[in-house]
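We emphasize that the prediction below concerns an isolated chain of 423 residues; any contacts that depend on oligomerization or on bound cofactors are therefore not represented. The input was used exactly as deposited, without trimming of termini.
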Amino acid sequence: MRRYISHQFPNELKTYISLILASLLTVVAIDFFLYSSDYAQHLFKQLIASQPELSFAITPITFVLIVYVAKYFCHYVQGSGIPQLIAANDSRNKTIRERLLSFRVAVGKIGFIFLGMLGGAPIGIEGPSIHIGGSIFYGFNRFLKLKRKLLIHSLIAIGGSAGLIVAFNAPIAGFLFAYEEIGRKLKKQALILIAAVSLLVYFLSLLYRGNTPYLANMSAYTIDYSLIWQLIPLAILAGIVGGLFSKATLYLIEKFISHTKFRVILIASLLGLIIAAFNYLSKGQIAGSGREEVLLMLAGERLGVEFVLMKYFSTLSSLASTIPGGLFMPSISIGAGIGAEIATYYTQINAEVIIMMAMIAYLSAVVRAPLTATFVILEMSASLTLIFPGLLVAFAANWVSKQIFTQPIYEALAENYLKLTQK
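Result of the prediction step, given as a token string:
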């Protein structure tokens, strides 16, 4: 048994040294990425709050610039980045992996997200963080020159897990995401190595940044288990809305794929104008990841149905444009908006608990990774005491979403990347 398990680990000392160096570099790079992204979106929101009409100039120009440059010069930085990791792990083609994951791609992702935030795009940071982490870890393979497929694919999964851990201070969710999405085809024994390095990344992140929850500390909130059944309608609603979102996203991406420069510019301009209109109407509130808005709603402020609708359709437009950007945090903010609006109908459960359950249910419905959705939100809010109701709504919403669209959104997008990179 010991020999069987040891076979799943690297044999050379330089591999372990490289894993430590990659962990350190990932923590520093993603921390810089988070701060630069926050700075950019705050600049845009401050400007638009006082002069909302400027959005009609800034946002469409930003979308055209990013979409055009990404498509023709840096194609593999498009989208969230998670499909690239899945495609790299599913592909046996070394050339494809090196195009999808590299130090150059990591730097490009950081730059494009900064520009997107500066231009008012409603995008998140977790998918790009996962892409950056995967690119850094796989980038070290140029020096390691690993031959065993298991170790190469484990390296990619470790990088993705590290990216999510550092972005959201969520070690359990990072490991589970590697299991549910990135490394779903890996042998189970590889999970030992993934868990060990993920734990290392988490400790390095604690030493570098501290242990502050990404969202508010909601550890004081609980729920009477006899009332859990009341959450089922919430899970069904989130499952329907999230399933429709995923289906619409994939449909629009397929329809908007264009190979002529005129159509690329035209589509990017139109989608940028749609988002600009929402930025104007919300005075910049729908721009960025949505973290600030989630904190407001958890503090008891209702942003209204209009926020939910604008964030929903602006995120859909952003994804359809293929602009680099994540899906987790925008989805979480939409879920929080849904929860805040229906919390008034729950007289026996705290509004904050309803909001968190809605975030879990909607995220699970969109990304179709119920374990990750549950733990990432509970870890971000230091509320692991709500694990049982969280898992209930996550799996219920996931099932409802699956009835609307069978294939998870990241798997479908990964297939498109494999097709494109094989041309």
